[in-house]
Amino acid sequence: MTENDAPHAQGMHVVHDGPRQAPPLLLIHGSGASGSTWGPVVPALAARHHVIRVDLPGCGQSPPARSYDVPAQADRTAALLDHLGLRHVAVAGHSSGGYVATALAERRPGLVASLALVSSGPSPGALLPQPLIHRVLLAPPFGPLVWPARSDAMVRGGIRATAARPVDIPDDMVADMRDITYRSLRTVLSRNSAYLAERSLPERLAALGVPLLVVFGAADPRWDPQSAHRYEAVPGARVEFLPGVGHLPMLEAPERTAELLLGFTATGR
């Protein structure tokens, strides 16, 4: 069962799947995306979990925010979980959603039971040269001119540029990605980069002692796949590679991605 929460609880659009009495699993999307990014894996996850999908401020169906700093995003997420009365939550973040998930564990360690990072680059040096369509859409001087006029086909092309195999892109994912403004996305990207530059994710996570799963596409065109090995510096971390998969494991290999997440939330390793 899918259920929308209050329209903008704690400043974020929220969707619930699965029984409310089941163990909670929070899913956090990446830059400019929305909770719909997780759609293909939700049915399997919701069979065992109360799945909570959020649209971070300024993304999807959530209104803009005054600050897009990663710690501020984490604080809003913590306030949402408090509002829902949830504790000991398993948290999964895709791409830069992994930064918000990590900041949440940093700022509210008792709230996060386990942490799964999917395609989350560990440090700035791991970023690969970006596809041409992303440079056109995001970089001045063309970005501000092209962004308001971008078509559904262009949005789909931008999404597919981060995949390593053909993918079916849900219509709601396209609609949600069209809703974010150029200014908001540029600010989100800037704040995410600042968080990662301040201290790498493996360094941050090594001090937390939270059970950690890292899932990386072995053909990720956005982040150097070999950089995922840097997470092995985190005590007890489990790193899994998906052969032939790019930056979007939820779309490219939904069954295997769901299997990894369910196995991890069941055992913590």
What is the strand and helix layout of this fold?
Layout lengths: L1 E3 L8 E5 L6 E5 L13 H5 L3 E6 L14 H15 L4 E6 L2 H11 L4 E7 L13 H7 L3 H5 L5 H9 L10 H9 L2 H17 L2 H6 L5 E6 L20 E5 L6 H4 L1 H14 L2
Parallel strand pairs: 3-4, 3-5, 5-6, 6-7, 7-8
Antiparallel strand pairs: 1-2, 2-4
Helix pairs in contact: 2-3
Structure description:
38% of the residues lie in helices and 16% in strands. It has an eight-stranded mixed sheet, with helices on both faces. The chain has eleven helices and eight strands. The chain is globular, with a radius of gyration of 17 Å. With 269 residues, the chain is an alpha/beta fold. The chain has one domain: Rossmann fold, CATH 3.40.50. The mean pLDDT is 92. Strand 1 and strand 2 (13-17) form a beta hairpin.
Look at the structure and name the CATH superfamily: Alpha/Beta hydrolase fold, catalytic domain
Strand content: 15-25%
Q: Give Rg in angstroms.
A: 17 Å
Strand order across the largest sheet: 1-2-4-3-5-6-7-8
- Tell me the major beta sheet: 8 strands, mixed
In sequence order, what are the helices and strands, one letter per element? EEEHEHEHEHHHHHHEEHH
Give average pLDDT, whole number: 92
- Helix fraction bin: 25-40%
Q: Which blocks of ≥5 consecutive residues have pLDDT under 50?
A: none
Q: What general outline do the C-alpha atoms trace?
A: globular
**Number of beta strands:** 8
Looking at the structure, the CATH topology is Rossmann fold
The end-to-end span amounts to 28 Å
Number of helices: 11
Kindly name the structural category: alpha/beta
In the CATH scheme, the class would be: Alpha Beta
CATH architecture tag? 3-Layer(aba) Sandwich
Tally of distinct domains: 1
